[in-house]
Protein backbone atom coordinates (compact mmCIF):
# COMPACT_ATOMS: atom_id res chain seq x y z
CA UNK A 1 0.00 0.00 0.00
CA UNK A 2 1.40 3.40 -1.01
CA UNK A 3 0.90 6.96 0.14
CA UNK A 4 -1.29 8.17 -2.67
CA UNK A 5 -4.93 7.07 -2.75
CA UNK A 6 -4.43 5.60 -6.23
CA UNK A 7 -2.13 2.99 -4.74
CA UNK A 8 -4.22 2.38 -1.63
CA UNK A 9 -3.22 5.29 0.63
CA UNK A 10 -5.76 7.38 2.54
CA UNK A 11 -7.33 10.10 0.36
CA UNK A 12 -6.76 13.73 1.36
CA UNK A 13 -10.44 14.62 1.00
CA UNK A 14 -13.28 12.66 2.53
CA UNK A 15 -15.97 14.65 0.69
CA UNK A 16 -16.11 16.91 -2.37
CA UNK A 17 -15.01 20.52 -1.90
CA UNK A 18 -17.28 23.47 -2.49
CA UNK A 19 -21.05 23.14 -2.78
CA UNK A 20 -23.35 20.69 -4.45
CA UNK A 21 -25.12 22.17 -7.45
CA UNK A 22 -27.69 23.61 -8.11
CA UNK A 23 -28.31 25.87 -5.15
CA UNK A 24 -31.87 27.04 -4.53
CA UNK A 25 -34.09 28.27 -1.74
CA UNK A 26 -37.32 29.96 -0.77
CA UNK A 27 -37.06 32.56 -3.53
CA UNK A 28 -37.16 29.98 -6.32
CA UNK A 29 -39.99 28.13 -4.55
CA UNK A 30 -42.07 31.30 -4.18
CA UNK A 31 -41.52 32.36 -7.78
CA UNK A 32 -42.50 28.92 -9.06
CA UNK A 33 -45.58 28.87 -6.83
CA UNK A 34 -46.51 32.28 -8.21
CA UNK A 35 -46.41 30.98 -11.77
CA UNK A 36 -48.46 27.94 -10.81
CA UNK A 37 -51.16 29.99 -9.15
CA UNK A 38 -51.23 32.66 -11.87
CA UNK A 39 -52.57 30.08 -14.30
CA UNK A 40 -50.38 31.68 -17.00
CA UNK A 41 -47.61 29.24 -17.71
CA UNK A 42 -46.36 30.67 -20.96
CA UNK A 43 -44.87 34.06 -21.60
CA UNK A 44 -47.34 35.15 -24.27
CA UNK A 45 -50.27 35.06 -21.86
CA UNK A 46 -49.14 38.17 -19.99
CA UNK A 47 -50.23 41.67 -20.91
CA UNK A 48 -46.80 43.18 -20.24
CA UNK A 49 -43.13 42.17 -19.99
CA UNK A 50 -43.10 43.13 -16.32
CA UNK A 51 -45.78 40.61 -15.39
CA UNK A 52 -44.04 37.75 -17.16
CA UNK A 53 -41.25 35.89 -15.37
CA UNK A 54 -39.56 35.35 -18.75
CA UNK A 55 -39.91 39.04 -19.61
CA UNK A 56 -38.35 40.06 -16.28
CA UNK A 57 -35.58 37.50 -16.66
CA UNK A 58 -34.74 38.77 -20.15
CA UNK A 59 -34.49 42.35 -18.98
CA UNK A 60 -32.54 41.58 -15.80
CA UNK A 61 -30.01 39.23 -17.38
CA UNK A 62 -29.48 41.57 -20.34
CA UNK A 63 -28.85 44.40 -17.82
CA UNK A 64 -26.46 42.22 -15.85
CA UNK A 65 -24.42 41.53 -18.98
CA UNK A 66 -24.68 45.13 -20.30
CA UNK A 67 -26.89 44.28 -23.28
CA UNK A 68 -29.88 46.24 -24.49
CA UNK A 69 -31.86 43.18 -25.63
CA UNK A 70 -32.40 39.67 -24.27
CA UNK A 71 -34.38 36.89 -25.95
CA UNK A 72 -35.01 33.87 -23.72
CA UNK A 73 -35.24 30.48 -25.41
CA UNK A 74 -35.50 26.78 -24.63
CA UNK A 75 -31.78 25.95 -24.39
CA UNK A 76 -28.30 27.13 -25.29
CA UNK A 77 -28.01 25.19 -28.53
CA UNK A 78 -31.07 26.81 -30.07
CA UNK A 79 -29.94 30.18 -28.68
CA UNK A 80 -26.88 29.87 -30.92
CA UNK A 81 -28.93 28.79 -33.92
CA UNK A 82 -31.35 31.69 -33.45
CA UNK A 83 -28.42 34.09 -33.03
CA UNK A 84 -26.90 32.90 -36.30
CA UNK A 85 -30.24 33.43 -38.05
CA UNK A 86 -30.41 36.85 -36.44
CA UNK A 87 -27.20 37.97 -38.14
CA UNK A 88 -28.37 36.61 -41.49
CA UNK A 89 -26.44 33.34 -41.74
CA UNK A 90 -27.96 31.29 -44.55
CA UNK A 91 -27.36 28.20 -46.68
CA UNK A 92 -23.90 28.10 -48.20
CA UNK A 93 -22.33 30.43 -45.62
CA UNK A 94 -19.31 29.44 -43.56
CA UNK A 95 -19.07 30.14 -39.84
CA UNK A 96 -15.67 29.91 -38.17
CA UNK A 97 -15.72 28.04 -34.85
CA UNK A 98 -13.06 26.78 -32.46
CA UNK A 99 -12.35 23.05 -32.24
CA UNK A 100 -11.99 23.35 -28.47
CA UNK A 101 -15.61 23.53 -27.37
CA UNK A 102 -18.77 21.47 -26.95
CA UNK A 103 -20.36 20.07 -30.10
CA UNK A 104 -23.32 22.48 -29.86
CA UNK A 105 -21.16 25.34 -31.15
CA UNK A 106 -20.77 23.51 -34.46
CA UNK A 107 -24.14 21.78 -34.54
CA UNK A 108 -25.92 25.15 -34.20
CA UNK A 109 -24.08 26.24 -37.34
CA UNK A 110 -25.28 23.12 -39.15
CA UNK A 111 -28.84 23.71 -37.95
CA UNK A 112 -28.61 27.16 -39.52
CA UNK A 113 -27.75 25.40 -42.84
CA UNK A 114 -24.20 26.71 -42.71
CA UNK A 115 -20.76 25.08 -42.72
CA UNK A 116 -18.64 25.04 -39.56
CA UNK A 117 -14.98 25.77 -40.25
CA UNK A 118 -12.83 24.67 -37.31
CA UNK A 119 -9.78 26.61 -36.21
CA UNK A 120 -7.19 26.17 -33.48
CA UNK A 121 -7.03 27.87 -30.11
CA UNK A 122 -4.65 30.11 -28.24
CA UNK A 123 -2.67 27.67 -26.06
CA UNK A 124 -2.43 30.25 -23.27
CA UNK A 125 -6.11 30.11 -22.40
CA UNK A 126 -7.84 27.73 -24.86
CA UNK A 127 -9.96 30.44 -26.51
CA UNK A 128 -10.14 30.84 -30.29
CA UNK A 129 -6.91 32.06 -31.91
CA UNK A 130 -7.71 35.35 -33.72
CA UNK A 131 -4.89 34.80 -36.22
CA UNK A 132 -6.34 31.41 -37.11
CA UNK A 133 -9.73 33.06 -37.58
CA UNK A 134 -8.33 35.59 -40.02
CA UNK A 135 -6.45 32.89 -41.93
CA UNK A 136 -9.67 30.86 -42.32
CA UNK A 137 -11.76 33.66 -43.85
CA UNK A 138 -13.00 33.00 -47.39
CA UNK A 139 -15.58 34.71 -49.60
CA UNK A 140 -18.14 32.33 -48.01
CA UNK A 141 -17.46 33.44 -44.43
CA UNK A 142 -20.44 35.13 -42.88
CA UNK A 143 -19.65 34.94 -39.17
CA UNK A 144 -17.25 33.80 -36.48
CA UNK A 145 -18.49 32.11 -33.32
CA UNK A 146 -15.90 32.57 -30.59
CA UNK A 147 -16.47 30.49 -27.45
CA UNK A 148 -15.72 31.88 -23.99
CA UNK A 149 -14.34 28.48 -23.11
CA UNK A 150 -14.94 27.55 -19.51
CA UNK A 151 -16.06 31.18 -19.10
CA UNK A 152 -12.83 32.88 -20.19
CA UNK A 153 -13.62 35.73 -22.57
CA UNK A 154 -11.96 35.58 -25.98
CA UNK A 155 -9.77 38.41 -27.26
CA UNK A 156 -12.72 40.50 -28.36
CA UNK A 157 -10.54 43.45 -29.47
CA UNK A 158 -8.65 41.33 -31.98
CA UNK A 159 -11.81 39.57 -33.14
CA UNK A 160 -13.73 42.82 -33.59
CA UNK A 161 -10.88 44.27 -35.66
CA UNK A 162 -10.94 41.18 -37.91
CA UNK A 163 -14.73 41.23 -38.16
CA UNK A 164 -14.72 44.91 -39.13
CA UNK A 165 -11.95 44.42 -41.68
CA UNK A 166 -13.69 41.49 -43.40
CA UNK A 167 -17.27 42.54 -42.77
CA UNK A 168 -18.32 39.39 -40.91
CA UNK A 169 -20.52 39.04 -37.84
CA UNK A 170 -19.44 37.99 -34.34
CA UNK A 171 -21.91 35.62 -32.70
CA UNK A 172 -20.36 34.62 -29.38
CA UNK A 173 -20.98 31.28 -27.73
CA UNK A 174 -21.28 32.48 -24.14
CA UNK A 175 -22.66 29.18 -22.84
CA UNK A 176 -19.99 29.20 -20.09
CA UNK A 177 -19.43 32.89 -19.37
CA UNK A 178 -22.30 34.22 -17.26
CA UNK A 179 -20.91 37.20 -15.39
CA UNK A 180 -17.67 37.50 -17.39
CA UNK A 181 -16.60 40.90 -18.66
CA UNK A 182 -14.12 42.03 -21.28
CA UNK A 183 -12.85 45.57 -20.57
CA UNK A 184 -15.84 46.23 -18.31
CA UNK A 185 -18.49 45.00 -20.73
CA UNK A 186 -20.38 41.76 -20.21
CA UNK A 187 -19.92 38.88 -22.62
CA UNK A 188 -22.74 38.60 -25.12
CA UNK A 189 -22.96 42.39 -25.30
CA UNK A 190 -19.85 42.61 -27.50
CA UNK A 191 -19.87 41.95 -31.24
CA UNK A 192 -23.25 41.33 -32.85
CA UNK A 193 -24.79 39.05 -30.26
CA UNK A 194 -24.09 36.15 -27.91
CA UNK A 195 -25.92 33.02 -26.86
CA UNK A 196 -26.01 31.67 -23.29
CA UNK A 197 -26.98 28.29 -21.88
CA UNK A 198 -28.87 27.83 -18.60
CA UNK A 199 -28.63 24.05 -18.61
CA UNK A 200 -28.44 22.61 -15.11
CA UNK A 201 -24.69 22.54 -14.69
CA UNK A 202 -24.29 26.20 -15.68
CA UNK A 203 -23.59 28.95 -13.16
CA UNK A 204 -27.00 30.44 -13.93
CA UNK A 205 -29.45 27.64 -14.47
CA UNK A 206 -33.10 27.10 -15.29
CA UNK A 207 -32.68 23.33 -15.73
CA UNK A 208 -32.70 23.78 -19.49
CA UNK A 209 -32.77 27.22 -21.04
CA UNK A 210 -30.89 29.80 -23.04
CA UNK A 211 -30.78 33.47 -23.98
CA UNK A 212 -29.50 35.57 -26.83
CA UNK A 213 -28.15 39.01 -25.89
CA UNK A 214 -27.45 41.85 -28.28
CA UNK A 215 -26.99 45.58 -28.42
CA UNK A 216 -28.23 45.69 -32.00
CA UNK A 217 -31.94 46.26 -32.45
CA UNK A 218 -32.14 44.69 -35.92
CA UNK A 219 -30.30 41.54 -34.81
CA UNK A 220 -32.46 41.25 -31.69
CA UNK A 221 -35.69 41.66 -33.67
CA UNK A 222 -34.83 39.05 -36.28
CA UNK A 223 -33.62 36.62 -33.61
CA UNK A 224 -36.77 37.15 -31.53
CA UNK A 225 -38.95 36.63 -34.56
CA UNK A 226 -37.17 33.41 -35.51
CA UNK A 227 -37.64 32.12 -31.93
CA UNK A 228 -41.30 33.14 -31.80
CA UNK A 229 -42.70 31.45 -34.87
CA UNK A 230 -41.99 34.34 -37.22
CA UNK A 231 -44.05 36.99 -35.42
CA UNK A 232 -43.10 40.67 -35.56
CA UNK A 233 -43.64 42.94 -32.55
CA UNK A 234 -46.83 45.00 -32.73
CA UNK A 235 -48.24 42.92 -35.60
CA UNK A 236 -51.32 40.66 -35.39
CA UNK A 237 -50.89 37.39 -33.50
CA UNK A 238 -51.59 35.19 -36.53
CA UNK A 239 -49.32 37.08 -38.89
CA UNK A 240 -46.01 35.25 -39.53
CA UNK A 241 -43.18 36.82 -41.47
CA UNK A 242 -40.13 34.55 -41.74
CA UNK A 243 -39.19 30.86 -41.83
CA UNK A 244 -38.87 30.09 -38.15
CA UNK A 245 -39.61 27.86 -35.22
CA UNK A 246 -40.93 28.06 -31.65
CA UNK A 247 -38.10 28.30 -29.15
CA UNK A 248 -39.92 30.15 -26.38
CA UNK A 249 -38.88 29.72 -22.77
CA UNK A 250 -41.62 28.73 -20.31
CA UNK A 251 -42.67 30.83 -17.32
CA UNK A 252 -41.34 28.07 -15.05
CA UNK A 253 -37.87 28.50 -16.45
CA UNK A 254 -38.17 32.28 -16.23
CA UNK A 255 -39.16 32.05 -12.56
CA UNK A 256 -36.18 29.86 -11.69
CA UNK A 257 -33.93 32.12 -13.74
CA UNK A 258 -35.00 35.19 -11.75
CA UNK A 259 -34.30 33.38 -8.50
CA UNK A 260 -30.91 32.17 -9.68
CA UNK A 261 -29.90 35.52 -11.14
CA UNK A 262 -30.31 37.12 -7.72
CA UNK A 263 -27.51 34.81 -6.50
CA UNK A 264 -25.16 35.14 -9.46
CA UNK A 265 -23.15 38.27 -8.58
CA UNK A 266 -22.20 37.02 -5.11
CA UNK A 267 -21.42 33.52 -6.36
CA UNK A 268 -19.27 34.93 -9.18
CA UNK A 269 -17.31 37.04 -6.68
CA UNK A 270 -16.70 34.02 -4.42
CA UNK A 271 -15.51 31.86 -7.29
CA UNK A 272 -13.28 34.57 -8.68
CA UNK A 273 -11.70 35.24 -5.28
CA UNK A 274 -11.00 31.56 -4.70
CA UNK A 275 -9.68 30.82 -8.18
CA UNK A 276 -7.36 33.83 -8.12
CA UNK A 277 -5.84 32.61 -4.86
CA UNK A 278 -5.51 29.03 -6.09
CA UNK A 279 -3.93 30.15 -9.37
CA UNK A 280 -1.35 32.24 -7.51
CA UNK A 281 -0.42 29.40 -5.17
CA UNK A 282 -0.03 26.98 -8.07
CA UNK A 283 3.24 28.72 -8.97
CA UNK A 284 4.86 26.76 -6.10
CA UNK A 285 4.10 23.36 -7.62
CA UNK A 286 6.14 22.26 -10.64
CA UNK A 287 4.06 20.61 -13.33
CA UNK A 288 0.89 22.67 -12.80
CA UNK A 289 0.01 26.18 -13.94
CA UNK A 290 -3.22 28.16 -14.15
CA UNK A 291 -4.87 29.13 -17.40
CA UNK A 292 -3.84 32.61 -18.59
CA UNK A 293 -6.15 35.45 -17.69
CA UNK A 294 -5.82 38.47 -19.95
CA UNK A 295 -5.73 41.73 -17.93
CA UNK A 296 -8.62 42.95 -20.10
CA UNK A 297 -10.84 40.32 -18.46
CA UNK A 298 -12.34 42.59 -15.80
CA UNK A 299 -14.66 39.98 -14.32
CA UNK A 300 -14.35 36.25 -14.66
CA UNK A 301 -17.47 34.18 -14.30
CA UNK A 302 -16.35 30.67 -15.01
CA UNK A 303 -18.17 27.40 -15.56
CA UNK A 304 -15.03 25.35 -15.18
CA UNK A 305 -11.49 26.34 -14.35
CA UNK A 306 -8.72 24.94 -16.46
CA UNK A 307 -5.24 24.41 -15.19
CA UNK A 308 -2.40 22.97 -17.19
CA UNK A 309 -0.34 19.91 -16.59
CA UNK A 310 3.21 19.54 -17.89
CA UNK A 311 4.46 15.95 -17.64
CA UNK A 312 8.02 17.04 -18.44
CA UNK A 313 8.11 18.69 -15.01
CA UNK A 314 6.46 15.73 -13.32
CA UNK A 315 8.67 12.68 -13.91
CA UNK A 316 7.14 12.17 -17.35
CA UNK A 317 3.93 10.89 -15.79
CA UNK A 318 0.93 11.00 -18.10
CA UNK A 319 -1.81 13.56 -17.58
CA UNK A 320 -4.44 10.81 -17.38
CA UNK A 321 -2.57 9.09 -14.55
CA UNK A 322 -2.40 12.36 -12.65
CA UNK A 323 -6.10 12.96 -13.26
CA UNK A 324 -6.94 9.54 -11.86
CA UNK A 325 -4.72 10.16 -8.87
CA UNK A 326 -6.37 13.53 -8.18
CA UNK A 327 -9.83 12.00 -8.30
CA UNK A 328 -8.70 9.15 -6.05
CA UNK A 329 -7.65 11.79 -3.50
CA UNK A 330 -11.22 13.11 -3.62
CA UNK A 331 -10.61 16.14 -5.86
CA UNK A 332 -13.16 16.55 -8.67
CA UNK A 333 -11.02 16.98 -11.78
CA UNK A 334 -11.71 16.27 -15.44
CA UNK A 335 -10.46 17.60 -18.78
CA UNK A 336 -13.42 19.75 -19.81
CA UNK A 337 -14.37 18.11 -23.08
CA UNK A 338 -12.30 15.20 -24.27
CA UNK A 339 -11.37 15.78 -27.91
CA UNK A 340 -11.56 18.46 -30.62
CA UNK A 341 -15.14 18.71 -31.90
CA UNK A 342 -14.21 17.62 -35.43
CA UNK A 343 -13.15 14.22 -34.01
CA UNK A 344 -16.82 13.36 -33.38
CA UNK A 345 -18.38 10.71 -35.64
CA UNK A 346 -20.74 13.28 -37.16
CA UNK A 347 -17.76 14.96 -38.82
CA UNK A 348 -15.42 11.99 -39.27
CA UNK A 349 -18.15 9.90 -40.88
CA UNK A 350 -19.92 12.85 -42.51
CA UNK A 351 -23.26 11.76 -41.12
CA UNK A 352 -25.35 14.26 -43.03
CA UNK A 353 -28.15 12.10 -44.27
CA UNK A 354 -29.06 10.88 -47.73
CA UNK A 355 -28.58 14.23 -49.38
CA UNK A 356 -25.46 15.41 -47.57
CA UNK A 357 -26.95 18.78 -46.73
CA UNK A 358 -25.58 21.43 -46.05
CA UNK A 359 -22.33 20.38 -47.76
CA UNK A 360 -23.98 19.53 -51.08
CA UNK A 361 -25.96 22.75 -51.14
CA UNK A 362 -25.50 24.43 -54.51
CA UNK A 363 -24.85 27.76 -52.80
CA UNK A 364 -21.72 26.24 -51.32
CA UNK A 365 -19.94 24.27 -54.02
CA UNK A 366 -16.81 23.41 -52.04
CA UNK A 367 -15.42 20.20 -50.54
CA UNK A 368 -14.87 19.99 -46.80
CA UNK A 369 -12.61 17.28 -45.43
CA UNK A 370 -12.93 17.06 -41.66
CA UNK A 371 -11.29 13.60 -41.70
CA UNK A 372 -7.84 14.99 -42.44
CA UNK A 373 -8.15 17.97 -40.13
CA UNK A 374 -5.51 18.10 -37.38
CA UNK A 375 -5.29 21.25 -35.27
CA UNK A 376 -2.17 20.76 -33.17
CA UNK A 377 -3.00 22.86 -30.11
CA UNK A 378 -6.55 21.53 -29.85
CA UNK A 379 -5.27 17.95 -30.12
CA UNK A 380 -2.44 18.44 -27.63
CA UNK A 381 -4.50 20.21 -25.03
CA UNK A 382 -7.10 17.46 -24.77
CA UNK A 383 -4.60 14.60 -25.06
CA UNK A 384 -1.91 15.78 -22.67
CA UNK A 385 -2.40 19.06 -20.90
CA UNK A 386 -5.89 20.11 -19.82
CA UNK A 387 -7.17 19.55 -16.32
CA UNK A 388 -10.14 21.33 -14.92
CA UNK A 389 -12.32 21.72 -11.88
CA UNK A 390 -16.06 22.49 -11.85
CA UNK A 391 -17.32 25.89 -10.73
CA UNK A 392 -19.13 24.53 -7.67
CA UNK A 393 -15.76 23.50 -6.18
CA UNK A 394 -15.01 27.23 -5.82
CA UNK A 395 -18.10 28.22 -3.87
CA UNK A 396 -16.74 27.29 -0.46
CA UNK A 397 -14.25 29.04 1.85
CA UNK A 398 -10.61 29.76 1.00
CA UNK A 399 -9.61 26.77 3.11
CA UNK A 400 -11.04 24.59 0.30
CA UNK A 401 -8.35 26.03 -1.97
CA UNK A 402 -5.72 25.11 0.61
CA UNK A 403 -7.10 21.57 0.68
CA UNK A 404 -6.84 21.51 -3.14
CA UNK A 405 -3.21 22.56 -2.84
CA UNK A 406 -2.65 19.81 -0.25
CA UNK A 407 -3.78 17.27 -2.84
CA UNK A 408 -1.48 18.67 -5.52
CA UNK A 409 1.49 18.85 -3.14
CA UNK A 410 0.88 15.26 -2.09
CA UNK A 411 1.10 14.05 -5.69
CA UNK A 412 4.17 16.19 -6.29
CA UNK A 413 5.86 14.57 -3.30
CA UNK A 414 4.97 11.06 -4.46
CA UNK A 415 5.91 11.17 -8.12
CA UNK A 416 8.00 8.00 -7.84
CA UNK A 417 5.00 6.09 -6.60
CA UNK A 418 2.80 7.41 -9.42
CA UNK A 419 5.46 6.61 -12.00
CA UNK A 420 5.79 3.04 -10.65
CA UNK A 421 2.00 2.60 -10.72
CA UNK A 422 1.88 3.82 -14.30
CA UNK A 423 4.67 1.41 -15.37
CA UNK A 424 2.85 -1.46 -13.71
CA UNK A 425 -0.34 -0.61 -15.62
CA UNK A 426 1.59 -0.42 -18.88
CA UNK A 427 3.25 -3.80 -18.24
CA UNK A 428 -0.09 -5.39 -17.43
CA UNK A 429 -1.66 -3.90 -20.57
CA UNK A 430 1.16 -5.30 -22.74
CA UNK A 431 0.99 -8.81 -21.24
CA UNK A 432 -2.84 -8.93 -21.33
C1 LIG B 1 -19.81 25.70 -25.39
C2 LIG B 1 -21.25 25.31 -25.35
N1 LIG B 1 -22.08 25.81 -26.27
C3 LIG B 1 -23.38 25.51 -26.30
C4 LIG B 1 -23.93 24.64 -25.37
C5 LIG B 1 -25.36 24.25 -25.50
O1 LIG B 1 -26.13 24.55 -24.40
P1 LIG B 1 -27.42 23.68 -24.04
O2 LIG B 1 -26.95 22.43 -23.38
O3 LIG B 1 -28.18 24.57 -23.11
O4 LIG B 1 -28.16 23.42 -25.29
C6 LIG B 1 -23.12 24.10 -24.38
C7 LIG B 1 -23.67 23.20 -23.35
O5 LIG B 1 -23.05 22.84 -22.39
C8 LIG B 1 -21.74 24.42 -24.38
O6 LIG B 1 -20.91 23.88 -23.49
Structure description:
- The chain is an alpha/beta fold.
- Helix content is 38%, strand content 13%.
- The chain folds into two domains: 5-21 and 264-336 and 381-431, Aspartate Aminotransferase, domain 1; 26-262, Aspartate Aminotransferase, domain 2 (3-Layer(aba) Sandwich), CATH 3.40.640.
- The chain is built from 13 helices and 13 strands.
- A seven-stranded mixed beta sheet has the order 1-9-8-5-4-2-3, with helices on both faces.
- A hairpin with a 2-residue loop joins strand 6 (181-182) and strand 7 (185-186).
- It binds pyridoxal-5'-phosphate.
- Pyridoxal-5'-phosphate (PLP) binds at residues 75-77, 101-102, 104-105, 147, 173, 175-176, 197, 199, 210.
- Pyridoxal-5'-phosphate is lined by residues 75-77, 101-102, 104-105, 147, 173, 175-176, 197, 199, 210.
Can you give keywords for this protein?
432 residues, alpha/beta, Aspartate Aminotransferase, domain 1, Aspartate Aminotransferase, domain 2, seven-stranded mixed β-sheet, 38% helix, globular
Amino acid sequence: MGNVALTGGAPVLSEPLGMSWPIFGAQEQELLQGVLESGIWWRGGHASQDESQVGRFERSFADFQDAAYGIAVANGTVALEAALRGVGVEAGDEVIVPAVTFVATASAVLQANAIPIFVDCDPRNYTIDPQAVEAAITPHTRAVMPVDYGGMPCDMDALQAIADKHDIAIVSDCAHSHGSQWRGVGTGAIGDCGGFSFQMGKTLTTGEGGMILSNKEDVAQLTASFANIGRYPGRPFYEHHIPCTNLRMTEWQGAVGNGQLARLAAQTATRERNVTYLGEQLADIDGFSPIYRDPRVTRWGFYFWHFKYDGAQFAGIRRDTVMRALNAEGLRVHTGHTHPVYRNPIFQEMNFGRKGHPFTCSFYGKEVDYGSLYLPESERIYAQEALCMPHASFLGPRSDMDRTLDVLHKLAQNQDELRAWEREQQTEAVSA
